[in-house]
Amino acid sequence: MAVRALWFERGTLHLIDQRLLPLRLKVLHLRRLGDVADAIRSMAVRGAPAIGVAAAYGMALGAAEGRWTPDRAAAALRGTRPTAVDLFVGIEAVRAEWAAGNDPVAAAEAYRELVVGECRRVGEVGAPLFRGGPKVLTHCNAGALATVEWGTALAPLRVAHERGSDLFVWVDETRPLLQGSRLTAWELGQERIRHAVIADNAAGHYMRAGEVDSVIVGADRIARNGDFANKIGTYEKAVVARENGIPFFVAAPWSTFDAERADGRAIPVEERSPGEVLRFGGVRAAPRSSTARNPAFDVTPARYVRAFVTPDGLVRPRDLPTRLRARASRRKRPASKIP
Ligand code: MRU
């Protein structure tokens, strides 16, 4: 794999500081739970599966510090970001093992293995959708940086490209923090996948012009009925794709599915600092007297989704409740711990 968002060695979590890419490739070395919480909150590490894995290691670091209980450590990390359910799943994976007297580092390693393996399978499952060199549009960054390795939306594109598909990717810049132009374009460049960055507002123009064959995005939380949260702007892209008869896919590991939420109305949407909207590249981009609103995510209704690309195959939204019930009856997840 060309890109790895984070790794754990000798009691230290190393992670790429995603705030600085693509201009600087800097690695942060974190040894305390509080440092990991800060990195998640400030988005040095971001993307739903990646913050789940970072938080899992944060729990392991907390255990080594000796001043946290499993429950207090979990509470500190849960307070960092509200929308991506993976965060809570990763924390719980380690909390339960630690509370049972098992090795928290081993639990965090096992959680990372699970997520990376599922993302690789998402790539295998989704790759056939992108045979024959299509033009694909994606929003935000759902690559290795967002998932530790492989990606969700980018994993099928990466595998299709490896298998010889000369595909082309339209990369939405993704205001206000530019995860598309800074991170997705950087990852595609590493893989030599053809792409062009477009202003978020240009996506509809290219869809209407017949320049987009399909859309694929990741997700931060997928409710039982298939409504899903993803980076702000995703909803608009889904609606315009439907208007133009373009298939819209959502790729995710199982940690992103939240069977406890009946539909999208139950998904908490993070609102971040107005400063992220009022400044651009550190420079004020609105009058001093202006205020701003800054929802980090929006919720797209399930009816816009052609299929979820999961580790175990394509799943239509109407089949999702049954699939999630079947999974829950196989492995009991402690729902009460997942906010
Ligand atoms: O605010 P971010 O950058 O953490 O938001 C990330 C996204 O919205 C991604 O699209 C999502 O996590 C899917 S990533 C595999």
What do these coordinates show?
The protein is of the alpha/beta class. It is built from twelve helices and 16 strands. The chain has a seven-stranded mixed beta sheet, with helices on both faces. Strands 11-8-9-14 form a four-stranded mixed beta sheet, covered by helices on one side. Helix 8 links the parallel strand 5 and strand 6. Helix 4 runs antiparallel to helix 5. The longest helix is centred in the middle third of the chain and has 23 residues. 53% of the residues are buried. 5-S-methyl-1-O-phosphono-5-thio-D-ribulose binds next to helix 2, helix 6 and strand 9.
- Could you say which small molecules are bound to this protein? 5-S-methyl-1-O-phosphono-5-thio-D-ribulose
Placed side by side, the strands forming the largest sheet appear as 6-5-4-7-10-15-16
Give the fraction of residues assigned to helices.
Answer: 25-40%
Largest sheet: 7 strands, mixed
- The helix/strand order is EEEHHHHHEHHEHEHEEEHEEHEEEEEH
Radius of gyration: 19 Å
Strand portion, in percent? Answer: 15-25%
Mean pLDDT: 96
Question: Termini, distance in Å?
Answer: 33 Å
Count of individual helical segments: 12
Outline of this structure?
With 339 residues, this protein is an alpha/beta fold. It is 38% helix and 17% strand. The protein is globular.
Keywords for this entry:
339 residues, binds 5-S-methyl-1-O-phosphono-5-thio-D-ribulose, alpha/beta, 7-stranded mixed beta sheet
